[in-house]
Amino acid sequence: MAKAAAAPVPAAAGDAPPKKKGKLIIIIAVILVLALGGGGAAWFLLVKKHADEEQGDEHAEEAPKPKPKKKAEPGAPPVFVNLEPFVVNLRPEGNGDQFLQVVAVLKVEDQHEAENVKLYMPEIRHHILLLLSAKKASEVGAPESREELAEDLKDAVNGVVGEPPPKSKKKPQVPTGPIKSVFFTSFIVQ
């Protein structure tokens, strides 16, 4: 009986190495599947990214079309944004110090644009102050020069709130940008 009991033990010992090899084969197979899956995913993402870049290059040649803005309702009252007074030193002309005090009002497309202008007010005031302080008293004295100054202010404010002024010297018939006009409610040169 001792021989019979000894016989099953070697059989059990013989089964143990195939189980270890089976586990090893399963682990290698899992690692191989993960590596192939990762490689396939990386290839897919890189090929897709490369295709998107090529497609972007083809579409980059086409000029982007600006989306049309919603027109203000006909008959709707105009919307104005009051600016606080500006007082600046004008560039000297030899007559001593000269000052310019201006109170301006902006006419905008709609209430939404008025709120947008208020969000940018510190930057708008900065650009207006720079523009005004670069002028001489002789440049702002005549009514025609004041109209030109109003156009310059309109272009400066439109540049801040998102619509840069046109590059050409020829002024467009229809104003571009959310600021339609600039009106002076007070204009004092001293």
Feature tags:
Tetrahydropterin Synthase, Chain A, elongated, 4 strands, 6 helices, 190 residues
Secondary structure topology:
Layout: H1 2-6, H2 8-60, E1 79-82, E2 86-89, E3 99-108, H3 111-119, H4 121-133, H5 137-140, H6 143-161, E4 179-189
Helix pairs in contact: 4-6
Question: Can you walk me through this structure?
Answer:
The structure is a single chain. By secondary structure, the protein is of the alpha+beta class. It folds into two domains: 2-60; 79-189, Tetrahydropterin Synthase, Chain A (2-Layer Sandwich). The chain is 54% helix and 15% strand. The chain is built from six helices and four strands. Strands 1, 2, 3 and 4 form a four-stranded antiparallel sheet that branches. α4 runs antiparallel to α6.
Distance between the termini: 128 Å
Total of helices: 6
The assigned CATH architecture of the largest domain is 2-Layer Sandwich
What radius of gyration results from the CA coordinates? 38 Å
Overall pLDDT confidence: 79
Q: Within the CATH hierarchy, at the fold level, what is the topology of the largest domain?
A: Tetrahydropterin Synthase, Chain A
The CATH class name of the largest domain reads Alpha Beta
Q: Mind summarizing the main beta sheet?
A: 4 strands, antiparallel
Proportion of strand residues: 15-25%
Structural class: alpha+beta
Helix content: 40-55%
What's the domain count?
2
Structure summary, number of beta strands: 4
Shape: elongated
N-to-C SSE string, H for helix and E for strand: HHEEEHHHHE
Q: Unreliable runs, pLDDT <50, ≥5 residues? A: 60-68
